[in-house]
Every structure is written in C-alpha cells, then in structure tokens.
Amino acid sequence: MSIDTATPRAAVIGLGSMGAGMAGSLLRAGFTVAACDVNAQAVSRFTASGGQAAQNPAAAAEGADVVVCVVVNAAQTEAVLFGPDGAAATMRKGAVFVSSATMDPAIARRLAARLEETGRHYLDAPMSGGAARAAEGELTFLASGTKAAFDAARPALTAMAGKLYELGDAAGQGAAFKMINQLLAGVHIAAASEAISFAAKQGLDLAKVYEVITASAGNSWMFENRMPHVLDGDYSPKSAVDIFVKDLGIVQDMARAEKYPVPVAAAALQMFLMASGSGMGRDDDASLARLYAQVAGVTLPSPKA
Question: Exposure winner among 85, 90, 136, 285, fewest CB in 10 A?
Fold first, then answer.
C-alpha cells in the first residue's frame, strides 16, 4: 500500500460514542484517519465523514504515526495490540499507541512494556468528558508515559483534547488517576440517583428539586449532568450502567490487593450490579434512579412525547 508521508496518519480502533468523536477531531485537524469497529454502521458513518475504513486493527494501524485505541477494557486493548490481527505488528517503528480504555494500572504497565520491546511507544491515556466533548475535541486526558511517547502523540492529543494532564513518565499512572475519577463518578451517580428518587418519594416537584440542588451545596457534576435524563425519562445510553459495573469492580480489585477499605464505592458498585441484573446494564447509568424507584414504589417522569 502506498503511504503519503506528508500527511500525518492516525488509526482509531473503536468508533463508539467516544471513539467516533475522537476520530472526527483527528480528521478536522488534517490527519488521514483509518478506523475499524465491529459495528458496520459506525464505520459507514465514519467513511461518510471522510475517514477510511479498515477491516481490523492491523489494517488500520499500517503506516500510522499514532494509533488511538478506544475500546472498553484491558482485555480488548490487549487483543487490539497483540491479537491475530493486532496493531503492534503493523504500526511503524517509533509510532505511538494511545490507550484510552479504563484499566488496572498494573495491566497498563504490562502492556506498555510488551509494546515498547518492539520499538513502538505506549501512552497510557484514559480520558474523561463524554461524547459531546469528544465530538468537539475537548476531552480531558489523564496521560502518562515516556517523553518519546508524549512527543509522538502530542499532535493527535492536541486535536482531541481540551485539557491534557501529563501525570508521569511511566504507564500506569494515568490509569491510576482515572480510577480515582471513576470511584468518585460512580459514587456521585449513585448518590444523585438515590436523592432524586427520595425526592420523588416525598412527592416533591423533581424539576424544582433539580433547580434548587444545582444552586446549592449538595450539587455535584454528576447530579447536574445525569439527573436531566431522569427528568426527561430518557435512559438511552450516553454512559451505560455496565461501564460502572466494570470500573467500580476494578476499584474493588485494586483496593483488595492493597488491603484498603472502600466501603462507599462498594455500596455504589452493588447498586450498579443490581441495576445491571435487573436488565438495565446497557441503559444510561442514570437508570440507578429507576432501580430506587422500583424498590420504593415511586413514579419517575415518563419519556417526553
């Protein structure tokens, strides 16, 4: 395949709600972008916007300067890199793999060491911000890695990030910061869902509850961001319940390994597990409010017509 070396080349593995926005940001910044995803419709939407389709990670990564991996977890990241059609075999020497999945820091360190043995770089770069910020190129990246990895990834990060935190010179540190964020995010969603459903139990006007709380000391970013989904009765997934089943599970594993107590995070995990077990795993994480409502026998707003 002929490679145009004048234009920076990127590969994006995973075109979900976050990856699609990240790929679009790279296109707008002037990258040639090849991408793959198991969802054929996502790939079609991407090619319609000017991107190139690839059959698998190996094909997407061929000749790439940067490979951005936006999959769900560590196991998928490892398969993207080192599976039968893995990107590690086709990335050019000196290219950088930007790993954005949330994972245990120890696994990030292991993947980085394995890739760096091949002459490629690994940047541990989980992100935060949601689909809207991904589409705007305004994500927050919590990144760590070698100077060479940062240097190789910086043009792509500039295109995708509103904020870039450089958190250390070794993989795993970015992942650890992300797990602190996810602990707080999961707990705050659970608390917000408990509060809004408790307000419904009291017979309060939930729209007025939202107005008052968002102007008061009890507010949180998650209350302000997620509770409109409850007010609208719209639980189409912007961030799914099962994401926090996974992420708070990682928090539990890390804490148990270090004999560190996380009782509040553990309670939040149980609520996400109950919601998932009730059939809401692929619905929006604000569905915890529906779970509370079911238990308490209260009515939350119905979807708007």
Answer: 136
Of 178, 208, 259, 304, which is the active-site residue? 178
Residue 15 lies in a domain: yes
Q: Which of these three, 170, 188, 214, is where a domain ends? A: 170
Domain boundary among 133, 151, 170: 170
Query: Is residue 124 a part of any domain in this protein?
Result: yes
Using one digit for the tens of pLDDT, what is the confidence trace for 190-213? 999 999 999 999 999 999 999 999
pLDDT of the residue at 180? 97
Give the residue from 118, 119, 117, 137 showing the smallest Cα distance to 127.
Answer: 137
Element (H, E) at 69: strand 66-69
CATH no. for residue 180? Answer: 1.10.1040.10
- Confidence tier at 304 by pLDDT (50, 70, 90): confident
3-state class (DSSP) for residue 204: coil
Write the pLDDT tens digit of every residue in 13-26: 999 989 999 999 99
Average pLDDT over residues 240-258: 97
Please check whether residue 46 is in contact with residue 79, taking contact to mean a CB–CB distance below 8 angstroms: no
Query: Which contacts qualify for 44-48: CB closer than 8 Å, 24 or more apart?
Result: 45/15, 45/20, 46/15, 46/20
Instruction: For residues 153 and 30, state if they share a domain.
Output: yes
pLDDT for 3: 42
Q: Number of structural domains, the chain?
A: 2
Spatial contact of 209 and 199, defined as CB atoms under 8 Å apart? yes
> Nearest-CA neighbor of 37 among 9, 62, 18?
18
Distance CA 125, CA 97 (A): 10
Annotated catalytic, 93? Answer: no
Report the predicted TM-score, pTM, of the whole model to 2 decimal places: 0.91
